[in-house]
Amino acid sequence: MDDLRARFGRLDRIDAPDLWNEAVERAAELGTVARRPISRAFVLIAAALLVVALAGAIAIGLRIIRPVPPDPSSVHYSNGMIAAQDQCGALVGIDPSSGETRNLVAASTDCTFGEYLPTETAWSSDGQRLAYGVWRVCGGCLDQSEPAGAWVYDVATSVTRRIGDCPEGSCKEIDISPDGSLVMYYAESMLNGRDSLVVVEVESGQSHVVALPGEAGSPAFSPDGSRIVLPLRGGVSGLYVVDTTRIAQLPLEPTLLYAGEYSGGVGETMVDASNVAWSRDGEWIAFDQVSGDGTSGVWVIRADGTDARLLAAGPAEEGPGFPTWSPDSRSIAYARTPSIGTSRGEQFELWTVAFAGGPSSRIYQAECCSEDWSPPVWSPDGEYIAFWVLMPGSPEVSGTAAIRPDGTDLRWLSAQRLRPDWQPIPISPED
């Protein structure tokens, strides 16, 4: 009885003593019934089933609470800083309003000028992570240099982290997924000269290498981060797709999305595509391609590889090339470099064309003659297009600049030789 009283200790707080006495008496009666012993095997099976049930509940719960990424075309942005890479692995940021430049990452102390090649940078869609490559010009010394490799700069902490290297040969191009979780770049093999696509998980640092059947051009993550589109030259040239949702399921091969068109001549290869860019709504891909007849053009296709259309064309040696979409997906800016005489060099120009079609408009023309330049990049709010151009002997018209899409309000922001990339700052509709 004392044991029963301990088992039902909670009931002694009840004010009605009759309920207590009745409960004790019934429990005593039940205690006289023989209980079947529980087998050890039954306990183990029950425990295993419980573990499976808990695992399933957790998995379902994770799917439920995992945030769904917003439609990229529904998010609006304001302009952050313009970031670019300088010599010796330095990273700088430019205030587009004042032109003030500050160092985000210091240059490597063991670098001589020109030893490291300033390359492109890439922002995550929330403007919090910036991917950039530090590639050394001397190919064989890449794997012997600590700074060389793929890096990520965190805006909130101002901390940089090296997440990938070049085991051999040289590396080129770089891009980051919109959510900042993946970084990709190309690594060229010294043995066969072929490119491999390296995709790195930023948090874990785990790398996934995708062998490519040819020479690769500038790649791009889709706005939702589920695919990478990259141009390949060699074999069947064209645009290929890598499914990032299956990136860990190696060996993974890129699948052909668009093979272009034959130029018509016997033995001639397919058109060579390069420099792809996604519209923000994720429905269209712009790219430039050179045909066997010596012409170059800016094309667009749907995300499924259909409905290819030519928007602008010109001689192969002059462009157009390097297309970039306006944030509203209605216009495309691109570069051209028409020749000036036989020995005077080339002239850098910026053009825009409406996605719906129609004539192109030249919005900027550099003075003669341009020694070097960068592809254009549209500001996140769509109000400006940034670029840089090098004009020997004319520092007043050289450097990093921004211009409105209609060709007005040209602003020279920095005299440095920088390839600009504009930081997106997400804003809410009420802002």
Oligomeric state of the chains in view: single chain
What would CATH call the class of the largest domain?
Mainly Beta
Which structural category do the helix and sheet elements fall into? mainly beta
The CATH architecture term of the largest domain is 6 Propeller
Q: How would you describe what is shown here?
A:
The chain is mainly beta and 431 residues long. The chain folds into 2 domains: 2-65, no CATH class; 72-427, TolB, C-terminal domain (Neuraminidase, 6 Propeller). The chain contains 3 helices and 31 strands. The strands form 7 sheets. Strands 4, 5, 6, 7 and 8 form a 5-stranded antiparallel sheet that branches. Strands 13, 14, 15, 16 and 17 form a 5-stranded antiparallel sheet that branches. A hairpin with a 4-residue loop joins strand 19 and strand 20 (295-302). The longest helix has 26 residues, at 40-65. The model is unreliable at 1-24, 26-38, 41-69, 139-145 and 262-269 (pLDDT under 50).
Which secondary structure elements does this structure contain, and how are they paired or packed?
Blueprint: H1 2-7, H2 17-31, H3 40-65, E1 76-85, E2 91-94, E3 101-105, E4 116-117, E5 121-123, E6 129-136, E7 149-154, E8 159-164, E9 170-176, E10 182-188, E11 195-201, E12 207-211, E13 215-216, E14 220-221, E15 227-233, E16 238-243, E17 255-258, E18 272-278, E19 284-290, E20 295-302, E21 309-315, E22 321-325, E23 331-336, E24 349-354, E25 361-365, E26 372-373, E27 377-378, E28 385-390, E29 399-403, E30 411-414, E31 421-427
Antiparallel strand pairs: 1-2, 1-31, 2-3, 4-6, 5-6, 6-7, 7-8, 9-10, 10-11, 11-12, 13-15, 14-15, 15-16, 16-17, 18-19, 19-20, 20-21, 22-23, 23-24, 24-25, 26-28, 27-28, 28-29, 29-30
